Amino acid sequence: MRVRELWEAALSSDKYQPVLDYIEQYWEKCIRQPEKAGSLRNLIMHIGRVPLPRKFVSPNDGYFAGTQFYWDTYFTILGLLDSDKGKLAKGMVDNLLFLYKKFGLILARNSYTSLGRTQPPYLTRMAFEVYEAGAADKKWLDKVMKIAQDEYETVWMSGQRYDDCTGLSRYRPKYLKRMLTVYESGWDVSARFSRGEQDVLPIDLNCQLYQYEADFLKWAKLNKDAKAANRWRKVMKVRQEQIQTCFWDNKTKFFYDNHEGKVGTLKTLAGFYPLWCGAASKEQAKRCVAKLKKFEHSGGLANSEKMPLSLRQWDYPNGWAPQQLTTIEGLLRYGYKKDAERLARKWLDCNLEVFEQTGKLWEKYNVTKKSVGRRGRYPTQAGFAWTNSIFLRLHKIITNN
Question: pTM of the full predicted structure?
Fold first, then answer.
């Protein structure tokens, strides 16, 4: 057989091919063109919406049509890059830069209703993903990284989101803090912030900022800036020590959020973020891997351990694509390849089984029943950009390995 015939035969034998085909055609349904500010349509149909300068992919073509979220963008562009849509991925990052310049932080979504509120920070990761995929040049990378450094310093390392006592950061929107802290976390809603706590130091947020610091170090090396590189090494060392002490419980051998100076007790997949960013020691990683059984089910990983009266959409029994990816990437980083591949296949198979039943991918899944995820504040949405993207990325992982 010729090479092309062999390739086509390989594709046809991939049980995931129907889902891959669905994802490729679904991109077009979710692409939104830049809107002209002040148009009659914008005023009537999109009250509160901030028009964006570049085309972007919404989470879906239904409930979230026309909306670009901050942290969704990171996971979405992974799939766009894997689908050779680098220009679109770059444009979505440019939209976030536009929001930052306009509002002094990257709004949780492109809406005036999100004033004073952001979401988990992934801007440096986006910059390097787009740059390393060849979708942007060094000049663009420098522009994004400069804004990311300003975001790091003014949004996360000063003001209401900075904890002077520990040097760590927290979620704390400018308005309606008690109500909206959980929304800024992205985990809306979760038992992690069940009472509107404003002083929780989240383990995942501080790991995301550790990743920022690692990316700033990488950028400094790329620029051959030894002074900056040395600075970021020192900053990373301090945060790593804090992550290993403030969030690690030596009794149960796991990472938790920190509540008013005390390590929490609720086990969630946020506890695997130190593996994702590389801040955990090898021994801590080993102990975390031993806790996978608390989260692992037939359809993948639940977002939290089982708990009584679990009704929140970011808790058990729901599993979400972003936490599957970050946990799996963390396992791969520390050499737990078999665990990573097993979990990736479980999630892909769950997505496939529900797709065969419904013809769609979904925002979240009930991983205990391998079904559409339990609803939250709104009906569980089909689509779905970050689920689609992470399906592509995990499929790539199991195919390449």
Answer: 0.94
